[in-house]
Amino acid sequence: MTVPFNWSLALPEIVLSVCGLLILVIGVFQRKNASGLLCTGLAVAAFVATAVLVLGAPSGVGYRGTFVSDDFARFAKLLALTGAALSVILSLDYNGRQKVDRFEFPVLILFSTVGTMLMASSENLMTLYVGLELQSLAIYILCAFARDEVTSSEAGLKYFVLGSLASGLLLYGISLVYGFAGTMEYGGLRAALSDNAPVPAGLVIGIVFVFVGLAFKLSAAPFHMWTPDVYQGAPTSVTAFMAGAPKVAAFALLLRIMAGPFGHLAPQWQMLVELVAICTMILGALAAIPQTNIKRLMAYSSIGHMGYAMIGVAVGTEAGVRGTLVYLATYLFMTVGVFACIMAMRRNGRPLDRISDLSGLSRTHPLLALTMGIFMFSMAGVPPFSGFFGKLMVFAAAVQSGLWTLAVIGVVTSMIGLYYYWRVVKVMYFDAPEPAFDRGARPVGAVAGAMGLVTALFLLVLGPVTGAAQAAAAVLFR
Amino acid sequence: MLSLGLLFGTAVFAPLLGAIIAGLFGRVIGDAASRIVTIALMVLASVCAVAALATGLDSGSQAIAVPVSTWVQAGGFHASWQLRFDTLSASMVTMVTVISTLIHLYSVGYMAHEKTPVSRFFAYLSLFSFAMLMLVSSDNLIQLFFGWEGVGLASYLLIGYWFDRPSANAAAVKAFVVNRVADLFFMVGIALVFLQFGTVAYDNIFALVPAHASSVYHLFGSDLRAYEVIGVLLFIGAAGKSAQLFLHTWLPDAMEGPTPVSALIHAATMVTAGVFLMARMSPLLEYAPVAKDVVLFIGATTCFFAATVGLVQPDIKRTIAYSTCSQLGYMFMAAGCGVYQAAMFHLTTHACFKALLFLSAGSVIHALHGEQDMFRMGGLWRKLPVTYAAVWAGALALGGIPPFAGWWSKDAIIDGAFVAGGLGLYGWVLGVAVAFLTALYSWRMLFLVFHGRPRVPELADHAHESPFVMTLPLVILGIAAVVAGWLLYPYYVGERQAAYWNGAIFNGAENHVLANLDQLPALITLVPTIAAFLGLGAAVVFYVLKPELPGRLAASMRPLYLFLLNKWYFDELYDLIFVRPYRALARVLWHGADEGIVDGSATGLARLTAGGSAQIVRIQTGSIAVYAFTMLIGLLALCSVFLFFG
């Protein structure tokens, strides 16, 4: 609050927004039948430049206390930018083959990412809402991007209707909080809640509404029901994006407001988060079992992962937040990698998404099968892959705080999860081979391979990632 | 010294080489080559063993260690691969290699009609011999245990050699399991030895024995002398291998193996291991009088039990098997009396005539194409003259008719029991009774098989004398059965025994049994011989003069006859006490614990999971209204929880 109007704090967001506008203009003046290569390349360049700016951004609060830049925000932003850049790279080939390679695609992802970054940096419930809406609106459009396809349109519409409901709940919650606390700034809220006066019921209801609004974005049970339908219906390039960066942002937001303004009510909302986390883990594990569609399977898998990551939120300690951040980092890479593999599933020009299409992949595409296998093992939490360390950290945090129920349910659902992850491996390695897939594109293979390497060798970067997550978590508890 | 070590080492390891060559490469080099290699190496081993024994006796030195390599070096526990050369081990090695060589040779003829390649059989035979050699030549208890277990393994393989016969497999498993039970006690005994002395090497143990004589174990509120406990445990181990009472049930069943195997088990390897262990551990046993009494009692009882059972068995091999069991009882009786020398003496002479008898029985069975029932034989002496002569030699030796081998050694034991006094008198009474029974069942067998008229003419008509490779061992062993006692008596128990054993066998300061053997009244020493002649006479009456008498006797004393025929009902008793309860328990654990609880919980959980997943997927209808409704329900639930419990 020392400098009321410090432009430089939001420099990365400003640069990214301007880049988005520029690319839009360039796209408009392009020839009608030009490929999306130029705009995609520019978008990736913009992401990289923004990431560099994020790394060098100063810390502080600006814009009359609506915007904050700190280690936590930077950690979340870097993850979001990485996820967005990777999904843009992946989308190029897929969209081209699906004939949906319009230049708006990277621009929409770019604006969605701006919203994500705003969310991570929010210091005011209004910033939160604006960022969330900016991100969501872009994704609504993206879901319906393959507008000639019924499933894509349906997915967009479903997500839009339910998302609007969630936004309404969130907005209603914010207004309740404002009504009872008299402020929307996190600092003010924190101060208002820290005195020992009894908390008014309206404020409590407001907090629940806000939580529910965010839980919808996280696809936590029982607000998850849109996830499988939308993941399956949307173009895979969009699903790859949706499953990554926005989740990270929503988590960043949840962590920030739960630990920040509502931190003093932790004993009360902890049970809430615990309850939702347990529901989410159990649902993610059980509902995935009968799935035959790989995208739907990944939707439930992502629901389950959100449940595990939520354990760190429920714990509400620094170790818990660190665990969640590490979990999100590993989750992001695994998810992008899996969707890269799914994009490689294509026969005679048509995309495939049934699990049985993977039969005997180890013989037709040994490298692809190996990479997919790594992701499956990692998602199941098998050491030494990255997924193991994320799980280990959140479970350890839960045990340290005495939340045995969470840890035990987490372990049990992980074991159930083994079943459907390993079923994919079994199909790839032990079933009779299907005909080979079409030749894949370089970038997709490269991203899948790189993500596979990161996942398999995560042990090597475990130290730095944990260190950064630790620094980010420390900010919230200062 | 080097040459002695080399000779001794060759004697021990040559059979191993044979086993490896024939076992691993038998298919490659063929049956004939396998036979030649194993036999050649056995001959080499025998020659080396004899040479080593002669050299060692010449040099007159005490125990010599022949290091092979280190084995275990863990903290305070040391065990090395090291051979121990002293008279005890050398005489055992000589006996084992020579007998085993003859049995190898005999097997060439006996196994000639096998349909499958016999390289495996010869490999097992050599392995069996090697394990036994390892056992007797070891320098510490751990290495002895290695050989001990090797013997168990090889016996299992050989008893079950005809693996397509269920009865052979059952017998092999039975032998292995009974031995394992005994081995458990043996292992505890070894562990206690290590705890007591901090070492498993013989030299160190024997040096420390006098110092620890007073240590006790406190167990169940009573004080047990450590040596008594160790002694009894080691004896139980020995009783398992040597088929003493309560652990003898495997031995008759082991007849399921080919006859050369029976000969090997009963003469050279396996069953003599227990007797050897008693002699080897004599420095410790001499300090454990109660344990010695246990040995004496069980030995004498086994001796009597087995002889009575052997009296009524119709199967030629089983008769000889029970005879072995009985003779081993004599040996343990001697060990229990403290005359280990006599035990070793009887062990050696018994090896000669028991191998002879088994090989002869094999020759008869071979001639009759597998017939083993003596009541289907008869009048074979014209057809099988060499075998007939061999059985006569064996029967004379076994029956204890002077001056044949058994007479010397058995008399030494029976006299020793009388001299020892106390419980020894129990042994003496039974020993004399058994001398009578032994002669009776020996000639019962001989007369039933070779005399009278053929009971099944078509079998006898086709009988023919065995080939030369089978009769040669019979002749050699027959000569040994005649002269071994007379030749070896001075060395084993006679005036030159102290020089011969040269400290390998220890007799306590108060143990004068051996020294006083000669001072027995002549009448007492004559009693066993008289008993043996009476037995021979009875056999002549029962089976030559009045062949209808045994049947009438059996009919008039039917309960007793059945009791003996069914081997004192030991198998049935064990079945009742151990096998059935164990099986019932296993069944409960299988159906109840494993299938019910372990599997049940797993399948139950799986069913629960599958059911849960089916329910959850059911609500995923695709309808936005349902989704929104679910969200609102969730919101309501969370609000309620937060308001009422938060």
UniProtKB/TrEMBL annotation, chain A:
Cellular location of this protein?
Cell membrane; Endomembrane system; Membrane
E.C. no:
7.1.1.-
Residue ranges annotated as coiled coil are: none
The record describes its quaternary structure and partners as: NDH-1 is composed of 14 different subunits. Subunits NuoA, H, J, K, L, M, N constitute the membrane sector of the complex.
- Summary of the function given for this chain in its UniProt record: NDH-1 shuttles electrons from NADH, via FMN and iron-sulfur (Fe-S) centers, to quinones in the respiratory chain. The immediate electron acceptor for the enzyme in this species is believed to be ubiquinone. Couples the redox reaction to proton translocation (for every two electrons transferred, four hydrogen ions are translocated across the cytoplasmic membrane), and thus conserves the redox energy in a proton gradient.
The family line of this record is: Belongs to the complex I subunit 2 family.
- According to UniProt, the name of this protein is NADH-quinone oxidoreductase subunit N
Q: Which species?
A: Endosaccharibacter trunci
Give the organism's phylogenetic lineage: Bacteria, Pseudomonadati, Pseudomonadota, Alphaproteobacteria, Acetobacterales
The gene for this chain is nuoN
UniProtKB/TrEMBL annotation, chain B:
This protein is called NADH-quinone oxidoreductase subunit L
Q: Where is the NADH:quinone oxidoreductase/Mrp antiporter transmembrane domain?
A: 138-424
Keyword annotations: Membrane, Transmembrane, Transmembrane helix
Source lineage: Bacteria, Pseudomonadati, Pseudomonadota, Alphaproteobacteria, Acetobacterales
Q: Where is the NADH-Ubiquinone oxidoreductase (complex I) chain 5 N-terminal domain?
A: 71-122
State the organism of origin: Endosaccharibacter trunci
- Indicate yes or no for the key word Glycoprotein: no
Q: Can you tell which superkingdom this protein's organism belongs to?
A: Bacteria
The compartments listed are: Endomembrane system; Membrane
Instruction: Name the residues that span the membrane.
Output: 6-25, 37-57, 88-109, 121-138, 144-163, 184-209, 229-251, 263-282, 294-312, 319-341, 347-365, 386-405, 425-447, 468-489, 522-545, 624-645
Membrane topology, as annotated, equals: Multi-pass membrane protein
Q: Which InterPro entries match?
A: NADHpl_OxRdtase_5_subgr, ND/Mrp_TM, NU5C-like, Proton_antipo_N
